[in-house]
Inverse folding.
């Protein structure tokens, strides 16, 4: 009888600590960000993106197949953005308020004929977020770094760079 694999995420923060037993799907490495007095941990599995608040609350969204690489996460005083690469070569993100992490807005950061991957998210002093990423073309020498400014809140907008 085969043994089923399980993966544990163990955390310790000022407000709580614990262990989260994940599914049998191997998770990516974990991205971590401060979220006010809490911490947010984010990871991907082949079909979903997950995040955990240091208070023990976990959330996930189903997505198109995800590349098994770490997502990126950043938070300001009110909101968090988790960015991740899909197997189709596009870059997607999800945003949520720290106070209401179950209210998730999913959106496309960039979709093109190029392969976008390796996202990074940075909170800006304006309340917006910068999502940067690597972008590869078909030629080995065709490598670029791209980025988008993302506004979160009642109306989500993506500024074109």
């Amino acid at each position: 009888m085969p043994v089923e694999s399980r993966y544990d995420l163990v955390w310790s923060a000022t407000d709580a600590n614990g262990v989260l037993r994940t599914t049998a799907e191997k998770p990516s490495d974990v991205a971590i960000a401060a979220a006010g007095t809490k911490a947010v941990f984010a990871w991907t599995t082949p079909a979903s993106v997950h995040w955990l608040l240091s208070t023990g609350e976990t959330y996930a969204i189903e997505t198109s197949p995800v590349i098994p690489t770490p997502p990126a996460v950043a938070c300001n005083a009110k909101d968090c953005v988790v960015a991740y690469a899909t197997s189709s070569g596009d870059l997607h993100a999800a945003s949520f308020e720290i106070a209401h992490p179950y209210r998730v807005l999913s959106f496309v950061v960039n979709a093109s004929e190029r392969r976008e991957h390796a996202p990074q998210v940075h909170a800006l002093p304006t309340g917006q977020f910068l999502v940067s990423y690597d972008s590869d073309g078909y030629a080995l020498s065709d490598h670029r770094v791209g980025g988008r400014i993302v506004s979160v809140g009642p109306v989500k907008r993506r500024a074109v760079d």
